[in-house]
């Protein structure tokens, strides 16, 4: 049966609108020239493992429709989590966006009263092309040939352009022909998916079989040597709880040096992802399902250890300074600071930069980090006033010694 030029709506439960939009029984995983994916529609992979749709980032991963929807991004989703963003640096300002592919193989988002946003480049060919969302989470553009039959040659794929998540089969490393490094980069904030965050996950350029996380070019964390049987600090908890093992692959040829991972076959199905967050932590998430049971695990790896006095303290590893021994911490609190406020110069790369600036300044006792990179600081002599109200969403990160003073 031929597909309609307009693709299928997806289920949406707007919390504040109190209404439900029904799912059409027709589903497709492929976008062809002449078709469009509008703001309220989705592509669904063949096995329904992934979806492709527009969204607005929120702390709770919720999203709304309509002119008040906020900045909109085209995104691949696995269950309730976004795993890839197609237009991280140029969002749509409203719900007028629609995704399409032209005969030259270019994916673009058209929108009202503005020029199109290019998701993939023009491939300088005309013919039968299509873009398909696979059950691996990869979004691929193929040349299907004049006959249009068969899967066709891959011309472009989202796996070559990772954002802040590494999926099984996705490669990170070095393209020796283009001299380009392929890595995973943290978002600026949980609300801003721009790949301008402070942290980057990639392959060790020295040739060692290990992964590194850099913080502004300085090594922040190392995985340690990874072996082909998947033994590392990243996988111990997973293997112990669900008897699931990773397989790590390090490959080198004339074209590319890269790392990728996969989950070894089990009696059930496993969904896996490695998420590099705005604090430089790698969160390994796995969900397991079989005919007899289902479960999941989520654990983080990084240089910051949760041995602080407060489990809610922000966990970013900093070097000791003349005034910080390394045992101090900043804790998120609802409330406000009084007096001695100042703003940082220019934009930062997110919360870790605000944290680092305050840490290195001996007079700084609290800070705020705003979604688009602004930092707000308070110096000694400021007073923290707790105000724990459900109507107060602004969080202040306060030095632990100042919290003690506020409770005395």
UniProtKB/TrEMBL annotation:
Coiled coil: none annotated. This is Bulb-type lectin domain-containing protein. Keywords: Disulfide bond, Glycoprotein, Signal. Residues 1-22 form the signal peptide. PANTHER family: BULB-TYPE LECTIN DOMAIN-CONTAINING PROTEIN, CURCULIN-LIKE (MANNOSE-BINDING) LECTIN FAMILY PROTEIN. InterPro entries: Bulb-type_lectin_dom, Bulb-type_lectin_dom_sf. Residues 28-154 form the Bulb-type lectin domain. It comes from the Eukaryota. CDD domains: B_lectin.
